[in-house]
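USER:
Class, as today's exercise, take the chain set out below, and explain how the chain folds.
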Amino acid sequence: MKMWNTHSLFTAAVAAFGIVSFTSLQASAAPIETANLRKRAPAWGFPYGSTKIRGVNLGGWLVLEPWITPSLFDGTGNSAIIDEWTFGQYQNYNTAHGKLVNHWNTFITYNDLAAIKAAGLNHVRLPIGYWAWDISRGEPYHQGQLPYLNQAISWCRTLGLKMIIDLHGAPGSQNGFDNSGQKKSYPLWHTSSDNIARTNAIIKTLASTYSSQTDVVTGIAPLNEPAGFFGNDVVAAARQFWYDSYGNIRYPYGTSQQGAIVEFISDAFQPLSYWNNFMPWQNGFEGVIMDTHYYGVFSQAEVSRSWDQQ
């Protein structure tokens, strides 16, 4: 992981209540080595390492989350519709698509982003699912999200906001959460080379598409919250995927030329100490930020904490 020469901790509100921290650690190398690394990398689209990220997650927009937009699910009258997969699976195509288009058109607007900017924030994190690009295995998802992603980028450019694009759902589900697109008792993303290859292809497309728009798109989170709590096989797949994503994100041109988009890697529900010396700058890695999520409202113990404890 890229080690900055100053301690810094960046925080942004996730969805409505969670907290995500983007953390970089202090470098112990001599200044000349740090300087040489900086010469190799282009300037980032945001001064990471010296300026705090203050932002909010645009959850529930381009990836449905039942707890954020319960009316979309309650309105179906079908208790089997519990995620975006079943939203498409158990409804007439035109009915489901009409609801989605209306949601995409109204849930987040220019005025919302203007309010975010006016509140003093400088970033938005935009979750999107793999199905916006690839439903080639017959998944029941609906497509049409990409024009809204591009519209949001345009709005951010007008307002002076930065964006982190977050792949929130991967084929097979990386965590079994409904916000991965498909709720299941055990995730299958890590069990299939096809799942992982499809995800890598999407990250490569993302990086290539937006490598020329780093005035707004400053970071890509290649996979949200892989469920490392299920065991070492998930963690091992995530570790390798972070390496693969590094090549796709940091080298988007298919050459040895680096791009200016930063890679945000999830802690996979492991303690931050687990990731010590992962992707060390001494081995040439740079432009990598650890993404750790803190949630404070999903249990009675959490909501009982004082402000200082939170």
Notes: The radius of gyration is 19 Å.
